[in-house]
Amino acid sequence: MSAHGPMPRSSWIFPALAVALFAVATGLGLTFTPSAAGLVFAAALLAILFGTVFAAVHHAEVIAERIGEPYGTLLLTLAVTIIEVALIATIMLGDKPVPALARDTVFAVVMIVCNGLAGLCIFIGGLRFKEQDFQVSGANLYLSVLFVMATITLIMPNYTLTAPGPIYSAAQLGFVSVVTLLLYGVFLYTQTIRHRDYFINQASGASDDGSPMSNRMLAVSVALLLVSLLAVVLLAKKFSLVVDIAIASIGAPPAFAGVLVALLILLPESVAAVAAARKNDLQKSINLALGSSLATIGLTVPAVAVAAYTLDKQLVLGLNAQEMVLLVLTFIISMLTFGTGRTNILFGLVHMVVFAVFLFMVFVP
């Protein structure tokens, strides 16, 4: 979907279908079962859910054009994070406890955006333009906050003494949640007010003034964005049933559920990031990719922690040794890739190889 020109029909049809599907499924008690009717319901649910997520991101892009950069990419990131929190909380806190889902999803998001998405954007941009520029100052701010957040939420739980790893005690979890929120809040202040110029690549022709549009279109997009987000939240429970049975049917490991949730919520944002790289605006691609990682940890972990504490559910956060190696490797190559301000296809290929290793190890640990 494009944010330019007339509003595409799919941007309002899918949210309407999502609300209608939820109403019909709830009223008739429809659910997913391993049968022909259940498969039809699952296929319809996935198609409508994906379409609604794309619609939400489209309306966020329309609003983003009015408010300009870097607020635009920030709005996209926050919209996707709301969807992510809804899906994780619904699945993790459902009838069948999945205490490690938040950890698996957060780790999958970091690996997908820092290796898969960033690598793909850099590789495509390198093929079209040989080299692309971006703001080193902004990338360094992203990475410094990301490294700290990822370490204290995904690695540190394995080495605490108050509670046996890989979990935090209630006091530790509360402290870490406050710290991550504080870090993310100060980062947003830096990105949007204090040092906005760090996150805008003027050479790419990006403008922070926003594109003019009618107030009517803006109001419609705001309303449909809210409806789209609400529809995804309402269908999250139905989606969790499909994920559970699908994983059981194919014999996939539990961590695959986190990968599925991450892929669902990141797909529309990934399309926007790749499109920006093709237009020689790698800065926007980096804002979308690294911004997603920060928002995922800075907002998802505290939100899920509050839900887990309120409902007295266990929350597993610590990664295993293999995953920690991949995370540290991602830190190292990210520092090398984003430390010069210029990229080429080899940087992109290196990140994509690490992402391929991550996916392979999910199924063959």
TrEMBL record:
One MF term in the entry's GO annotations:
potassium:proton antiporter activity
Tell where it localizes: Membrane
- Where is the Sodium/calcium exchanger membrane region domain positioned along the sequence? 40-192, 221-363
Q: Could you tell me the membrane topology recorded for this protein?
A: Multi-pass membrane protein
Annotated transmembrane regions:
12-32, 38-59, 71-94, 106-129, 141-161, 167-189, 217-236, 242-267, 288-309, 315-338, 345-364
Entry GO terms, CC: plasma membrane
Output the InterPro entries linked to this UniProt entry. Alkaline_pH_Ca-Antiporter, NaCa_Exmemb
List, alphabetically, the Pfam families matched: Na_Ca_ex
Q: Which residues form a coiled coil?
A: none
Query: Which keywords describe this protein according to UniProt?
Result: Membrane, Transmembrane, Transmembrane helix
Does the record carry Transmembrane as a key word? yes
The identity of this protein, by name, is Ca2+:H+ antiporter
Q: What is the lineage of its organism?
A: Bacteria, Pseudomonadati, Pseudomonadota, Alphaproteobacteria, Hyphomicrobiales
